Amino acid sequence: MNRVLARKLRTNVCGSKHIFQRACSTHVTRKVSSTAGSNETNANSTGDSPQHDIAIVGGGMVGIALAASLASKPLTKHLNVAIIDNNPLLGRKNIIEKGHLPDPRVSTVTPATISFLKDIGAWKYIEEQRHAYFDKMQVWDYTGLGYTRYNAKDVDQDILGCVVENKVLQSSQLSCVQESDLQKTIYPARLNSMDMLPSSSLTGLGEVPSTADLFMRGRLAKLELSDGNNVYAKLVVGADGSKSRVRELAGIKTTGWNYSQNAIICTVEHTVENFTAWQRFLPNGPIALLPVGDKFSNIVWTMDPTEASDRKSMSEDDFIKAVNDALDYGYGPHPETTSSGGSSLSWLTGDVNISAKERFETPPKVVKLSSERMMFPLSLRHAKDYVSNRVALVGDSAHTVHPLAGQGVNLGFADASALSRAIAEGIALGTDIGEANLLKRYEAERKPANIAMMAVLDGIQKMYAVNFGPLNAFRAAAFHGAHYISPLKKRIISYASGEQSLPLFS
After folding, report:
1. How many CB atoms lie within 10 A of CB 40?
2. Which of 185, 327, 392, 431 could pair with 41 in a Cys bridge, judged by C-beta atoms 3.0 to 4.6 Å apart?
């Protein structure tokens, strides 16, 4: 099975042709000030250009996750770290105000990600803000031929995941960085250029070589920023998204394709609270209804670009009706909830009685649109290399996936965790943290796992992109297998939650 997955991976991914309440006590370079005894770096306090151990380009969720992970480890918590991002939210206080409606930009974090966020100290801050655990998930399609329900108790867990607003995730991790011993400097600028030279001997230099000398000997990368600053670092981390400037300047190529789909996201309101994650596959793409706390849920609806434009511009009443149709009887009937013994797929599952907890349920009805509708195109992209000399990529800079299973940010957090461990190992061994040989350890851990998940998600997307009788029957058989075959069900849940690594099947 592993060979088959690897072959699919090479074909589909690698070879296809086809923020917060105490924000920014950290030094920001546009405000030149320092406090005696502070661990915060003043980038303009010396005549020499500022030198850092690590420059993280991108202050989003994954970039800040890396900084927070470094701050939480004994071997890395005293590093000098630059965060380069021109997002004004990084320098604004009280961006999260209680009583505001939920932001439509949310992430579904898995139990494995929750464990990571607890380890770095961020989860306690998230629990103070709005979030929504869910312990059940129902997946079905428009044909009415099959469905599956997952329950956390199937794998002896309390939850399957938690939905958190992106700004809450980011601000909580920033709070960890703020309260740590990490020496951090925020540069509110864009990366313009990046230079590095081949490594050479330090023989002949003084006991404390200058920044310029270290750069000339290939021991530092030089970053030129849009605000005129030059920043030097032993390691540059690209956490700057799918259009990564770091990746571009490092000359790292990508492969992938655009899906002929856009996604619409928004916040909606019910008359009752929602505790289940719902997903229905429709002819043009899946629609997901995810709890976000109180009586609110988040909609992620994938469809072709023309339909997406129409849905985004239609009236609120028409949009709510369309959402309820998509989650109920629209496009096709509900799946049957009788025993599988009377179905055409009884050969697969035998005569199994369905408990009340496993029966198909209709999602709660949407009564109100509570945010703007946002639309964005979907694509699959994968960097051929995650690292090069003095450069490492994390999150969307290295890989972007289809959002149908909400795995994108979880892959990014796993990247941040793995890279911080590799850096700590390098420090323990006395190794230059920017050397490619050390960074390859990070790539060797994350690249196979990310590619495998990308192949699974791309395969699911393609399987539901075609409405064809025999394929519909095959999909129904897959639903039934996932619903009634207990060992398979447990493996799927464990894999999706991040608790089980590959292989999924063995």
Report:
1. 17
2. 185
Sign for the CA dihedral angle at 162, 165, 166, 167 comes to negative
Decide: 409 and 241 in contact? Cβ < 8 Å.
no
Cα dihedral 176, 178, 182, 187 sign: positive
Query: Would you say how long the chain is, in residues?
Result: 506
Q: Specify which residues 286 forms β-bridges with.
A: 281
Reported as type and span, the H/E element at residue 85 is none
Strands ordered across the beta sheet of 131-134:
106-109, 161-165, 131-134
409-460 pLDDT tens trace? 999 999 999 999 999 999 999 999 999 999 999 999 999 999 988 888 887 7
242-290 pLDDT, tens digit per residue, is 999 999 999 999 999 999 999 999 999 999 999 999 999 998 899 999 9
Map tokens 């997955």 to a residue: 5
Statement: the pTM of the whole predicted model exceeds 0.70: yes
Q: Which residue has the tokens 């081949």?
A: 198
How far does the chain reach from its first CA to its final CA, in angstroms? 8
| Strands 285-293 and 387-388, bridge-based pairing | unpaired
| Triad 257, 260, 264: Cα angle to 5° | 115
**Pair 297, 267: CB distance under 8 Å:** yes
Which residues on neighbouring strands pair with residue 133, listed in sequence order?
162
- Between strands 399-400 and 374-383, the pairing is antiparallel
Per the CB < 8 A criterion, the answer to whether 164 and 104 are in contact is: no
